[in-house]
Specification:
- This protein is of the alpha+beta class.
- The chain folds into 2 domains: 99 residues, 2-Layer Sandwich (Alpha-Beta Plaits), CATH 3.30.70; 58 residues, SH3 type barrels (Roll).
- Helices cover 15% and strands 36% of the residues.
- It contains 3 helices and 13 strands.
- Strands 11-10-9-8-12 form a 5-stranded antiparallel beta sheet, with no helix packed on it. The protein has a 4-stranded antiparallel beta sheet with strand order 2-5-1-6, with helices on one face.
Length: 182
């Protein structure tokens, strides 16, 4: 349909699918990446499709369709006044390819290097450390106060909770755009 960068629609949380349906009826090119998640209810377990980026739908449109886009029910605003708020076709193509190939993409909290975190489970539950690396695991530095020495611990990103934001003494490293779990 349209070539070039994708715009981002900020939509009401939990209305992403409804907005996508409205856009489809209006014949506006859109992309709503979804992942499946098993949810356990009291009486049964079900597979749910949830948006990978909660509160956002990606669209491409012509200038003549702008009014139709922003007047879509559930749309809060159109992002994209600057290039940093637009998404390249290559980025969305990679996400689309991963989902089609069966990769398990999941939403992920953005935890920058230098963030103070608390370990939520395991032997070190409750211990506070600082994130120094993000790879397949999250590398956290923990200090043993009695001897004033530190050690590193690698834990899953889902096993930490943010205590306080970035420590300015640590260098900032670029974060990956999406995290893939096989």
């Amino acid at each position: 349909m349209h070539e070039g960068f994708w715009h981002v629609l900020h939509v009401i949380a939990n209305h992403e699918k409804r907005v996508a349906q409205h856009l489809a009826v209006r014949s506006i090119e859109h992309f709503l990446p979804l992942y499946t998640e098993r949810s356990h209810w009291t009486d049964r377990s079900v597979q749910l499709e949830r948006p990978l980026f909660m509160g956002y739908v990606f669209i491409r449109f012509s200038p003549q369709e702008r009014l139709s886009v922003i007047s879509t029910p559930g749309v809060l605003r159109l992002l994209g006044d600057s290039d940093s708020q637009r998404v390249s076709p290559e980025e969305l193509s990679r996400i689309r390819e991963c989902l089609a190939s069966g990769y398990s993409l999941r939403p992920h909290p953005r935890i920058p290097i230098g963030t103070q975190v608390r370990i939520r489970s395991g032997v070190f539950e409750g211990v506070i450390g600082i994130v120094t690396e993000l790879r397949q695991q999250c590398k956290v530095i923990i200090e043993l106060a009695a001897v004033q020495q530190c050690f590193s611990l690698e834990v899953g990103i889902d096993e930490v909770e943010v205590v306080s934001r970035i420590n300015p003494q640590l260098p900032k490293a670029p974060l990956p755009t999406c995290f893939v779990q096989a």
